[in-house]
């Protein structure tokens, strides 16, 4: 006979009774109906109808008496509070489950919040300009050098301004360093040199004073400067009276005319402290020196597509008209938001988002499995509550309340994890990666974390709640050991473990590819020995060192002083440290290229050095000679080429004595030597295209000493500083660090990215091991009686062991197969990101599954061994 009471009278009684009496009255009637239905006595349905009929008058009286006291909001609040209190009591009874599930979710939510803060800093950032949708960024592109978002030369910028019809205005800026004097001691200030119209183009007026006026950007014009909001606050205590005061930049007086909006301190501009006008003269503007960041405001009726088409066309015209300087260079424009990050950057962000999505799914699968096991263990409790009249929606809500409490606690702990991870990324990248510095746990990130904490319970709690609330009360109460959910429950738990393993494998393979890429890049031969090398950088102010002779003289005298410092065994200088910077990008024309096919302009990186540079670095000069002290401004211009450039310009020939010149220039440069290659910073080229010229013939104000030293790292800075200040004590000295540290700083972002994916991989592997251990341990616990009987009937322990291992192995095999298929799909995203290996590297696709399989098998062996060692007598007595 059907043991469910008739629906119509039950619904009628539910409608008439006040909410506070429904569970009690309906539960009593339901239990009475079941007893009569089981006894097969008088008609249970007729009895139920009669009882409901007798209850109607009382129900109406109760409703009339309580209707004035009934408050739906208060009722709901009371119910929620009861659910919360009960959930806390339930979790206190199972502290192990509560702690493990909370920590598991906290790690996943923390990683998600941290990565979202990085994505938010790039994708959802508010750009420091008005009407962002009409702003475009113009960049230089060179496919040969794999430069996708390069800078623009001054001459190309002027031509773009003259020829373009799509832009309301075009403005340019570039970065510069200043020596600020007049305080207690000289300091290095980061600066921007900008067009007077930049603030109008960006629609970002200064918060104090005015912007630069037309005419202040020409040589000989007024010496004016603006302060960034942060510099104004730190150095001048946000004093509005700073306007009209002077600041000494490189020894020259500049009048302060304004303070920028704090929103300008954005991305790579966040370090700017002082701004001065950009002066570009048509007669002297260089075409092959690319250093300008160009931003444009579109005309009201112009689309970004039209502006991009016109910009590309102008770039093609300039390449054709100035083939020597612009060979291989194109112009490109895009909306400001899209141009913040290149294609590889977008792939990395997408990969990170997919990775953290896998992390949260793995964690939810793990907690869901624990909830399924706990739900089976609590089957009797749910059955008793159902027998007392609790309806299924009420039980589901109670179980979901426990899941929400776990999730909210995990979110709070996860914010601490996110903050620690962000700080760790900054530390690993040594503060060199702007995106890591921009990432903040702001309101947007907090909202995202809250959303995860509310959605996650549905991911890991809904299915276990549905199953736990759906057990048959009479069936469960007749069981002495509860229920394991039957075949469907075992399949569900096994499916979750299989999903965990497949997601973990995909994540581990991606992490391995990233790690091996960074390793391959870092292990490329440097070409020199960085051990026991020290560096120090000085930039000379214009006012005190106005001519080439004074610049050369200072660096010669300071170098002589450094050679006398105890422990310093070698001293030389360069304007760009090897392995940390590209150098000045130039187009070089080979002499006689007009008559020899294939010897047109070549893209090279020019470095200024002093004699002895190759000896200090331990870099072999393969042929010819090093630069010498007699290579001066009065002698013929000379250069030493790297082996890569020599083979590029004169393949299969001896380059010594040959000549080249910088495109657009007049002076020919004679090759006097060929040096060994140095590692390129580009991931598409193994060796840098370096050309070295004497400092006396190409004097630079900013130079870096490279020194061989036998002194400890904390012993040499003080005497080195004293030696330099003995020549000029008004100069700030930067970059005083070991060469190893300098190389680390140049690659810090890669190391941080590797560490991040390593965290993902370890988390995924551990969660998979925990998942398969938990499922198999629970399976063994539920089958103790069966295993005891097998052992009592003579089954050997190793057969029981094999049975458990085989079940776990089936889950593992399924997860590995699905994971490999998913990994092959993900490898398409990794194609342009890996170096030195393929995105489907066989060693990775074989080794990682073996590692994950080994860890999972070890986790499976623990419950298998326990099952094989059960005592049959004790097991059967316990049952």
Descriptive notes:
Helices cover 52% and strands 16% of the residues. The protein is an alpha+beta fold. The strands form three sheets. Strands 4-5-10-7-9-8 form a six-stranded mixed barrel. A six-stranded mixed barrel has the order 15-16-21-18-20-19. Strands 14-22-13-23 form a four-stranded antiparallel β-sheet. Strand 4 (167-181) and strand 5 form a beta hairpin. The longest helix has 37 residues, at 392-428. The protein starts with 6 loop residues before the first helix and ends with a helix.
Ranges where pLDDT stays below 50 over 5 or more residues in a row are 595-599
Strand arrangement within the widest β-sheet reads: 4-5-10-7-9-8
* Euclidean distance between termini CA atoms: 32 Å
Mean pLDDT: 80
Number of strands: 23
Number of helical stretches of at least 4 residues? 27
What class would the helix/strand composition place it in?
A: alpha+beta
Biggest β-sheet strands, sense, barrel: 6 strands, mixed, barrel
Indicate the radius of gyration in whole angstroms. 37 Å
How would you sum up the global shape?
A: elongated
Indicate the proportion of strand residues: 15-25%
Helix content range: 40-55%
Offer a quick outline of the entry.
The protein is 52% helix and 16% strand. With 879 residues, the chain is an alpha+beta fold.
